[in-house]
Each structure stands twice: as structure tokens, then as C-alpha cells.
């Protein structure tokens, strides 16, 4: 029986590519593994897969009775609802420890670096398994995406090293140009519904018994949101009520200005203000230098909650 590999509920490029790359590695090592996904593919990930000739992993939302590997997450709030009925064989991740538990020992590859695919690259090196050219291409893109072309504070020398080595395998000289092309696709928000945008890269976190949802949209020009903010805020309010959330936050990240406009809908906005030592005006504030949800948002929220 096959083992399934998947990322978090609203998958980004790292989680989708990670499911594909880790499945390939595991299959080369003699395990029967299948990449899957819990949610819809976003435009950036679709572009990456099409550019290098990959199909999207199968959509699968129930894993009861299955053996699984998790990649790019270990939070219960980002897991399938029946995760307790699955057997977790291993986790590959670059986030903080989550609240999932297991009944048996498991394989753990967890590093404080910028991208899960950097860890998968290190696993390929550890097991001395050759990476195919097209697989190297999508892994390179995943690293460029998660590290915001090396601008994110989460980016490490290990990420840049892995990205350059993968680019060489893929036969790509100007990998930063590929990264900018990728982010230009990511910046195309016209025509998308407010719900599609708010949830494009959205994660729920349990903080002190409160459900906090945090989304992020990364673009090359923040002005694309000038006429959308009111609609985005309205949908955030609906999303908050629908999910029984305490707060919903949305980071509008400008990768050129290297900062984020934070939109907030919360039962206690003062806690959000205290977390970042700011004053919200009409539910929003500019956070200079803030580009990472994982490193610059979540830890400060958790201190408050």
C-alpha cells in the first residue's frame, strides 16, 4: 500500500513541490510514495509545475488508515481532520514545533532554514541520490519563492547554496530572473475573488485556545491592492465569523520595498498592536522590513496570546 506525502491545508509552492520531491527521493530509496495535496494549486505553483513539465499532485483530503509523511508543516490546524487516524512516518519541515503527536517513533528532518525543499536537497545529498533536471528546476523555484529570492530574513546560506546547486543541475544560469518572472505571475491578482486572494496562502494557528488565521500575498508592486483593500477586509470579516476565529490577519508584502501592509480583523485589535508595537488605522498598518510570516509575525502574536 502506498504512503502519501503532503503539505499544509492551503498549499504553497514549497509544500506542493516538497511533496513531489520527497516522494521521488523516497521512491528511489525503495518506498512506495505518492505526492498529494490538501487544497487547490495557486497561480505561482501552477506556473512552476507547467514550466518544468509536472502534473499537480492528486487532491486528497482524507487520510484515515493511511501511512503518511508531512512536509512543510506540523500544526494540527493545518492538517486533514482525520490526521489522528493516520500513521505519521516522518516530517520534513522548517517551522516551529507544532502540536501534532504520534504513537510511534518517526523520521524527523527539521531545520531552521528558509525552505523545506532545501532540506529535501540535503536529504538527496545525504543518501547520494541524483536529482533529475526538471525536478531540480521546481525545487529551485520553491526555494526562490519561500525565501523571496533570498530577501526573506528566514533565508540562510544553506538555502542559497542549495538553490545555486539546483540551478546548475537544471541548467539555469540566471535563476534570479526566473524568480522575478515567478513573482510577476504571483503578483497577478486581477480577476481573483477576495476569498481566493485572502486564502491563497493562508494558515490557521492555535494560540492560547484562540484560532488565529494569517494570510500572505507577495507582489512586486503593492499598488495592485489600492482598489481591493475594502473588499479584502470585508471578506476577512466573513472568514473570521465562518471559522470561529479570534483574528484574521493578511500580509500584503511588497518584495521590492521589502515590507508589508498588515490588514487586521480581530476581537482584540489591541493585542495585535501590542505584538508589533504599532497603532492600527482603519484596521491596517505598514510594517517596514517585515516579509516573513513564520519569523516576523507568528512568534510575536504567540507572545500576546
Automatic annotation (TrEMBL):
MF terms from GO for this chain are: inorganic diphosphate phosphatase activity; metal ion binding
Q: Name one Pfam family in it.
A: DHHA2
Q: What is its EC number?
A: 3.6.1.1
InterPro entries the record matches:
DDH_dom, DHH_sf, DHHA2, DHHA2_dom_sf
Domain DHHA2, residue spans: 179-305
Indicate yes or no for the key word Hydrolase.
yes
**GO terms under cellular component:** cytoplasm
For the protein in the UniProt heading, the enzyme class is: hydrolase
The name under which this protein is listed is: inorganic diphosphatase
Organism this protein belongs to? Sulfurovum lithotrophicum
Name the lineage: Bacteria, Pseudomonadati, Campylobacterota, Epsilonproteobacteria, Campylobacterales
Amino acid at each position: 500500500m502506498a504512503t502519501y506525502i503532503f503539505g499544509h491545508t492551503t498549499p504553497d509552492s514549497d509544500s506542493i513541490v516538497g511533496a513531489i520531491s520527497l516522494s521521488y527521493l523516497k521512491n528511489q530509496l525503495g518506498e512506495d510514495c505518492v505526492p498529494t495535496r490538501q487544497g487547490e494549486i495557486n497561480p505561482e505553483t501552477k506556473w512552476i509545475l507547467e514550466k518544468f513539465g509536472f502534473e499537480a499532485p492528486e487532491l486528497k483530503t482524507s487520510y484515515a488508515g493511511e501511512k503518511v509523511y508531512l512536509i512543510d508543516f506540523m500544526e494540527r490546524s493545518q492538517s486533514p481532520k482525520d490526521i489522528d487516524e493516520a500513521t505519521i512516518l516522518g516530517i520534513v519541515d522548517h517551522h516551529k514545533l507544532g502540536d501534532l503527536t504520534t504513537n510511534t517513533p518517526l523520521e524527523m528532518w527539521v531545520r531552521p532554514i528558509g525552505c523545506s525543499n532545501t532540506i529535501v536537497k540535503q536529504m538527496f545529498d545525504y543518501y547520494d541520490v541524483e536529482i533529475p533536471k526538471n525536478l531540480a528546476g521546481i525545487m529551485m523555484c520553491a526555494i526562490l519563492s519561500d525565501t523571496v529570492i533570498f530577501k526573506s530574513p528566514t533565508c540562510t546560506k544553506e538555502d542559497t547554496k542549495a538553490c545555486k546547486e539546483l540551478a546548475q543541475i537544471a541548467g539555469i544560469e540566471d535563476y534570479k530572473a526566473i524568480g522575478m518572472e515567478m513573482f510577476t505571475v504571483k503578483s497577478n491578482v486581477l480577476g481573483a475573488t477576495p476569498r481566493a486572494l485572502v486564502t491563497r496562502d493562508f494558515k490557521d494557528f492555535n494560540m492560547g485556545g484562540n484560532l488565529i488565521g494569517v494570510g500572505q500575498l507577495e507582489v512586486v508592486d503593492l499598488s495592485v491592492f489600492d482598489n481591493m483593500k475594502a473588499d479584502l477586509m470585508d471578506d476577512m470579516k466573513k472568514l473570521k465569523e465562518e471559522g470561529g476565529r479570534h483574528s484574521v490577519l493578511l500580509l500584503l508584502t511588497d518584495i521590492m520595498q521589502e515590507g508589508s501592509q498588515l490588514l487586521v480583523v480581530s476581537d482584540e485589535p489591541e493585542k495585535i498592536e501590542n505584538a508589533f508595537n504599532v497603532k492600527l488605522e482603519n484596521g491596517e498598518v505598514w510594517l517596514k522590513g517585515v516579509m516573513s510570516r513564520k519569523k516576523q509575525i507568528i512568534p510575536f502574536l504567540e507572545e500576546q496570546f
